[in-house]
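Quick entry between incubations.
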Amino acid sequence: MELRLSNLTKQLGKRRVLRGVDLLVPAAAWMSVVGISGAGKTTLLNIIAAVLEPDEGAVIIDGSPSGTGRHTIAYLLQDFPLYPSLIVRANLRLAVDRQFSSRGPTTEELVELLELGPLLTRLPTELSGGERQRVALARTLLLHRPIVLLDEPFSNLDAALRRKIRRRLRETQRAAKNITILVTHDQEDAISTSDLVAFLDDGVLVQHDSPERVFRRPRTDRVAGNFGDVEMVMLAPALSGAFCLEGSSRNGTPALRESDFTVSLKEEEGHIVVQVIAAEFLGSRRRVFVEFESERFSVVIDSYEQIPKQLWVKLRKERLQLYKDGVLVSG
Amino acid sequence: MLGLLILQCAPLFWTFRTSFRSESGLFIDAPERSSSLSLSNFIVLFTKTDYLRWLGNSFTLAISSALLATICAVLITFFLIFSQGSWQRLRDLVMISYLLPAMFVVFPLQNLLTGTSERIRFWSLVLVYQMFLLPIAVWVTAAYASRIPRGNIVLAQLDSLDSSQRFRLVYLPYARGGFSVTFVISFLIGMQEYLYNFVLTHDEGSKTVTTALASLQAGDVYKWAQISAAGSATILCCLLLLVIGGRAVTMAVLVSLGEKEWN
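Done. Structure below.
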């Protein structure tokens, strides 16, 4: 089963939320939809689930319009709705009664994975936000539908549980061979789980590619700035000159990830010396804000290193991207 | 707030106080300073007038019409909540019927019911009352139903729940608080109704408290103390009925949902 979105356009009030979105999600793929708030991610899911009608375009599931195939879609909504008068066990049973096929996780597996055991006899009003989210996630997965839509499914979960659930969900998805579309703000969710990433910017599908390509070759400076755990550094003319990039900078702005600088604590050949202004602790790494001839940028170093007063920096030219008017032109 | 409370309570106090006046103060409409209290007005009301029948008629009409209005409003709101698009605007449109002058309805109805028996005319009032009860009843239930989270409505659609499941699992848990409020408001409005009852029924046996109070008029003066006694007795009966009836209805709803057992 494959999912095709053809020229999806939607206006809500006076705002065009989606503008001609075209994309194909192949069978058994996990795709993450990312983008800044208000980019149209949830609207896209609502249209795929036939909760909203597109103004133009169509959602095509295996060659047929999706309106006829709602029963093939399981959708975890952003506010994690549950039936308020039913205890958790009954909420899950209701999903089991509506299973599309027998292929998928069982109630027992999901109760164990999502740690729902102590919650089974509680009413939804007696659950915390994170507990409610786990129950809603379980009931969505219990439907065993060929297409699963998840809108911020991990947002209220603790970091350790989040990682564990994410990994197991991916295994479950691979076994069930369903299409999963994940809307997330969390870069780690998108990068670690996905076969494909779709980046929406103000209703426009800017990039639809593997996570590696979206990270390494972001199509616009906005994708670059909003995807990945390390920032993209746009090199100002003074820096381009210092790194001998005058030739390429005539055709646009050279840019590279802050992790693509080679950083040394002592003087080395081919490196430029920069002054350290500030530093952020990121866990295994440290982001260091540096200045060169009043141009500021950031690099990352091992967090176990002491923060020096100056650093020697060189860039990896093979990782340079060139942006003109915010759009990738080469790299 | 205190001012509002005084404004609300002053007429009630005056009604109660006046109803306990002695026979000498029967026709006086001004507040009385005398501290003597008498039950004579109540004795006259219950022994020398048809008050109990009027009260019975009022309750019969108000309860029946409030029940019908509540059931219709609950079903209409359920339909509006789960329908999409322009149907949802109907909730506001129903209020337009209040702009219709009552005489446009009363006279055609009077013609329509001419020649029918008094019982039919009496029971037809239950339907006639819906004209003014239903819009407010729909409005109140819809206000309560608007507390249903959008996500739950979508969830019911995605799960392809049938109508009875949607009613039981989504609508009832959020909107049921509004059912009793709708019933109480409809009941109180029904108890106050005068015009349609006055125009459409003619028999003494069909009178309600509101229309029958006119018979406590003696020439061009009013027996204020007896009218007040009738008012006080009606208020007390309404309160008793709402407290006992309200508990019974709430209990019945909770039992039907399996959330409580009769005890």
